[in-house]
Design a protein that fits this description.
The complex is a heterodimer of chains A (262) and B (388). Chain A has 262 residues and is of the alpha/beta class. Chain A has seven helices and twelve strands. Chain A is globular. Classes of the chains: A alpha/beta (262), B alpha+beta (388). Chain B: GO terms for molecular function: fatty-acyl-CoA binding; flavin adenine dinucleotide binding; glutaryl-CoA dehydrogenase activity.
């Protein structure tokens, strides 16, 4: 039986672009280009490596996001080598927080069918990093997060987590959810053949009703958190220049201590 | 908020489809990761990034617009966009890819026997084998018809004698496509590296394309089996057909070098202050930036138009001449004008502009000088050949 791998990816606003909040205090996605979250490329890469090491595996990439998430997010993952895509797109999703997104992803992953779910360590826009854990909880399966090395064999997923003080070797029985870090191995560039082949790969578009999700559980209304106000970051002011006249080191140390860096 | 990409001025991206944009951004990422951090060092040391060839092959960049034999089979526009991003890195890198795909591989793909294609194209597409293209000679540049290199029959064999000059990838090449005069007109031959009598020596002391290998090929009684000849090419139309392919890539490529100069200059002008304000705020600087962006935009639109014509199978050689003449000339002007905005910083390898300007000096004259392209256009307009 084939190994069913599902990779959850996010379409994020380009961090190098000029990002703003819209009137409802969600990210203004129209004003800035979007792309596949770079941290999710590591998840796609690890899924591809697991698939290549397996006799028979199929990779489905799942995303929850606006219309453009298909062409600029999913397509890149498909170009890298994933087999098919699922795109949950619904106006009611606008403004969802991680609680809503994890609910939708869990339903979508169940809809696809899975043995292993692979996530990136965090999104590059929200950078919360809690989605893999929430997803595992909602699915009721083991979670092995923040892996810098991952492999699948004999119905188990194994991996290595590099902590500050210890390196852990972990294992979980499948089905399971894992997340991989940016230390797990450089993500491949999509090959041009892959880019051309991706056009022909199937992408299933789903709405909330297809997954049996009530609209009031997601979106801005269903979010557990709310942004009350947001102000643009103040313009950068000129830095402090320390001239070394014998006391330079002490002045630097005092500067750092004052800002609690040391 | 200043733009981070000057091509957004005319929303150039809106003219591309999803696939073209993804190929473009893949090459841009590759250049950012693998080329940009090292290019100044390679240029200064005069070394060509030969070791990138397998990675270029994995991406599908080598012979990307050719079909079969492990090649990608992309559209001409996608190939052009890839050339643009490569040349935004360095003209030398784009030259490596142009010569490999459009000259060496194309000559085999278009004119070779099935055996020659099977033997060389898959390895060349993968970047495992490098090719070069020997047409120009020390005394015959714009006038290749006068070439002295000759191939003579000796039993079933051919014996080649002569010199080829200014050959990109020459000493790095595993296989050389060499054009030679025969009793039967000009014919092409595949000369593997290491064949007795075939030697290369590199051109040193270059001030341009320093991150690219440029060599002289010496053929001193090189004996080749009859199977080494490209069976489908007869006469000068063979090599000229290849050059037309490579020139097409330059039409896009030159705009990549220009864009890189402008992006660097916009960033510099915004950060550099004189008289207590960023120099980007001065009218003379803005006039330069505006004029350069307009020329870049026009060049991009021309390149894309020619690409669409090529994909429709309707691109004529004089149209490629229009593109090469204009886009290289304007790219040079942009690079030099950018240099004036960067002041002293512009003459260093800390910024890309003089490197690009110097590279473009080569691009201006190789694969048809500006003057030859003017004459090709002149002939198309008047019906009169000015040089024959």
């Amino acid at each position: 039986m084939s190994l069913r791998i599902v990779v959850c990816v996010k379409y994020v606003p380009d961090a190098t672009g000029d990002r703003h909040f819209a009137e409802d205090l969600t990210t203004d996605r129209d004003a800035v280009d979007g792309l596949l979250s770079e941290l999710d490329e590591y998840a796609v890469e690890q899924a591809l490596q697991i698939s290549e090491a397996s006799d028979d595996a199929e990779i489905t990439v799942v995303t929850v996001g606006p219309e453009e998430a298909n062409k600029d997010g999913l397509r890149k993952a498909l170009s890298m080598g994933a087999d098919k895509g699922v795109h949950v797109v619904d106006d009611a999703l606008h403004g969802s927080d991680v609680m809503g997104t994890s609910l939708v992803l869990a339903k979508a992953v169940e809809h696809v069918g899975y043995d292993l779910v692979v996530c990136g360590m965090a999104s590059t826009d929200g950078t919360m990093g809690v989605l893999p854990a929430l997803l595992a909880e909602r699915l009721g399966v083991p979670q092995v997060t923040l892996l810098s090395e991952v492999a699948v064999a004999d119905g188990q997923v194994t991996g290595r987590r590099d902590g500050d003080t210890a390196t852990e070797r972990l294992a979980a029985s499948l089905p399971a959810v894992v997340s991989v870090t940016d230390q797990s191995g450089e993500a491949r560039y999509p090959s041009f053949k892959g880019i051309m082949a991706a056009k022909k790969k199937p992408v299933e578009e789903l709405q909330l009703s297809d997954l049996g999700i009530e609209a009031d559980l997601v979106g801005l209304g269903g979010a557990w958190t709310a942004v009350d106000s947001a102000d643009a970051r103040p313009a950068r002011t000129a830095g402090t220049i320390v001239k070394d006249e014998g006391e330079g080191g002490k002045q630097l140390a005092a500067f750092l201590a004052e800002r609690k860096f040391i | 908020m200043p733009v981070t990409d000057v091509t957004s001025l005319i929303d150039f991206d809106s003219l591309l489809d999803d696939e073209e944009r993804l190929i473009r951004s893949t090459v841009r990422d590759f250049v950012d990761d693998k080329v940009r951090p090292h290019i100044a060092e390679w240029f200064e040391a005069g070394t060509s990034p030969r070791e990138l060839a397998p990675e270029l092959g994995r991406l599908g960049l080598l012979g990307m617009h050719l079909t079969g034999y492990g090649c990608t089979g992309s559209s001409a526009v996608a190939y052009g966009l890839a050339c643009l991003e490569l040349e935004a890195g360095d003209s030398g890198l784009r030259s490596l890819v142009s010569v490999q795909g459009s000259l060496a591989m194309y000559s085999i793909w278009k004119y070779g026997s099935e055996e020659q294609k099977q033997e060389w194209l898959p390895r060349m597409a993968a970047g495992e084998a490098i090719g070069c293209f020997g047409l120009t000679e020390p005394d015959f540049g714009s006038n290749p018809a006068g070439m002295r290199t000759r191939a003579e029959r000796d039993g079933d064999d051919w014996v080649l004698t002569g010199n080829k000059m200014w050959i990109t990838n020459g000493s790095a090449a595993d296989i050389a496509t060499v054009w030679a005069r025969t009793e039967d007109g000009i014919r092409g031959f595949l000369v593997p590296r290491g064949t007795a009598g075939f030697t290369t020596s590199d051109v040193h002391r270059k001030l341009s394309l320093r991150a690219s290998t440029t060599s002289e090929l010496t053929l001193d009684g090189v004996r080749l089996p009859s199977s080494a000849m490209l069976p489908q090419a007869r006469g000068l139309s063979g090599p000229l057909g290849c050059l037309n392919e490579a020139r097409f890539g330059i039409v896009f490529g030159a705009m990549g070098a220009a864009r890189d100069c402008l992006d660097a200059t916009l960033a510099y002008a915004g950060a550099r202050t004189q008289f207590d304000r960023p120099i980007a705020g001065f009218q003379l600087t803005q006039a330069k930036l505006a004029d350069m962006s307009v020329e870049l935009s026009k060049g991009l639109l021309l390149a894309l138009h020619l690409g669409r014509l090529k994909d429709a199978g309707r691109l004529r050689p004089e149209q490629v001449s229009v593109g090469k003449l204009n886009n290289v000339r304007e790219a040079m002007e942009i690079a030099r004008t950018c240099r004036t905005i960067l002041g002293g910083a512009g003459i260093t390898l800390d910024y890309p502009v003089l490197r690009h300007a110097n590279n473009l000096e080569s691009v201006l004259t190789y694969e048809g000088t500006s003057e030859v392209h003017q004459l090709a256009i002149g002939q198309a307009l008047t019906g009169i050949s000015a040089y024959r």
